[in-house]
Amino acid sequence: MGNLFLALLFSIIFIVKILNHRNKNLPPSPFSLPIIGHLHLLNKQPLHQALHTLSSQYGPILSLKLGFRSMLVVSSPSAVEECFIKNDITFANRPRTMAGQHLTYNSTVPVWAPCGHLWRNLRRVATIEIFSHISLQKSSIIREEEVYYLLRQMFRVSNIEPQKVDFKYLSTLLVSNIMMRMVAGKPCVGEEFACMDVGKQLLKEFKDSYFASSTVNICDFFPILKWVGYKGLEKNMIRMQKMRDGALGRLMEEMKQKKPHVEKKRTLIETLFSLRESEPEFYSDNVIKSIILMMFIGGTDTTATTLEWAMSLLLNHPEILKKVKAEIDSQVGHGRLINDLDIAKLPYLRCVLNETLRLYPTSPLLLPHFSSTDCTVGGYHIPQGTILLVNVFFMNRDPKVWKEPTMFKPERFEVIKGEKEGFKFIPFGIGRRACPGGGLALRVISLALGALIQCFDWERVGKEMVDMTTGSGLFLMSKTKPLEAVCTPCPSMANILSQL
């Protein structure tokens, strides 16, 4: 009886909201069903592709209803500019979700924290202590060492004959080790285990310990479901967070027991412990854990996935791979390994990465924003409490924005180099909630991809093109079929590789 009453109450609220907004100039919207709204239009394919289809029909500013929540989907540079320039403060918040409550220390992780004093302090710490130019220079030795460790392992297994490698595993291993060393001063998988089954198991344990698989779920749109069949979902989140909190606590405790490193080699945890001495009220254990989570979740799979997409595209376009290799040979040569300082001298490599991020953006939908007040976008009324989604995937393949939008043409970024790109290319978001880690991600990918191309010749496993089918992830677009490739050490680099 109680459930029936809640369902009736929910229906009344839903109808009242519709009546309140029926005379306002809302954005175009498909026909919606009672209660569920447009849910039936979004459950048959990856969300970014479903929204792509709807935006093609109804335009780049689209209004949707999912349960009791309103959504605004934008997919044009002009609409993005209006959202994040004119209405930047209005859309500066994140929607409250069950996952945010239970998996992010009640939304205190920097990515999900509500706009306010806490978020500004978290953003300041991330910008200065982790992602500033000086901080990135200090951490360059970690990136170089981990890339060179990977090269050494690959040379050992491929020196005698060409070797098929699991590129997805290698890229994830590399980035995970870089992040763990930056955070805690140790890799998550030691070099001695990297090319063994135990290495894959250790990497799996690392991801199981710190990664959560859900950011939004059906109960965020239909709260009543928490009481009529999805109650186990919340319990699983609470259990998952308890396990992860324990792992983070143990990691912090290990650092407390160690002698602090000298200043230039200080880990992130040590830096945060040092900052806590002057601001103990702010740097609580939970705040420190939330910053660590940002590094692991925000910087690992996203970076590794982009590296995998980039190599997949190059294998399908060997002429472009040869051009990248020629640039590296010209600017770096064969007498030494590429290093962090060389990245600035490789503009075509950067064009390849930009084109990879255009065709296969790490996040096909930017993380959701949330309107704190009523506003106007494109002349349409946007009510307070609307969830904003930016369909980057649609924008990046829009023929009105890009010439030959589905073609892999890194040269297009040579043409627009130095020109104002506006809001048509925003791989790391835009506005005050843009990802602060974009610079670090590009350095990791550039160094890793450059080193792999400098030291090895790469081929597809067979004659068939690499499968470029995208997965169904909500905010991470991974490959459906993980990349495998054949590598052979370059004769010109064999001597250097043998001395690693």
Short note summarizing the structure:
This protein is α+β, with helices and mostly antiparallel strands. It has a domain at 142-227 and 293-498: Orthogonal Bundle (Cytochrome p450), CATH 1.10.630.10. The protein has helices at 2-21, 47-58, 77-86, 98-103, 117-130, 133-138, 140-158, 167-184, 197-210, 231-257, 268-278, 285-299, 301-316, 318-331, 347-359, 392-396, 412-415, 438-455, 494-498; strands at 61-66, 69-74, 163-166, 369-370, 375-377, 380-382, 387-390, 456-460, 484-489.
Architecture overview:
The protein is an alpha+beta fold. It has a domain at 142-227 and 293-498: Cytochrome p450. Helices cover 49% and strands 8% of the residues. It contains 19 helices and 9 strands. The protein has helices spanning 2-21, 47-58, 77-86, 98-103, 117-130, 133-138, 140-158, 167-184, 197-210, 231-257, 268-278, 285-299, 301-316, 318-331, 347-359, 392-396, 412-415, 438-455, 494-498; strands spanning 61-66, 69-74, 163-166, 369-370, 375-377, 380-382, 387-390, 456-460, 484-489. A 4-stranded mixed sheet has the order 1-2-7-4, with helices on one face. A 3-stranded antiparallel sheet has the order 3-9-8. Strands 5-6 form a two-stranded antiparallel ribbon. α7 (140-158) runs parallel beside α18 (438-455), α13 (301-316) crosses α15 (347-359) and α13 (301-316) packs across α18 (438-455). The longest helix has 27 residues, at 231-257. The radius of gyration is 24 Å and the shape is globular. It starts with a helix and ends with a helix. 40% of the residues are buried.
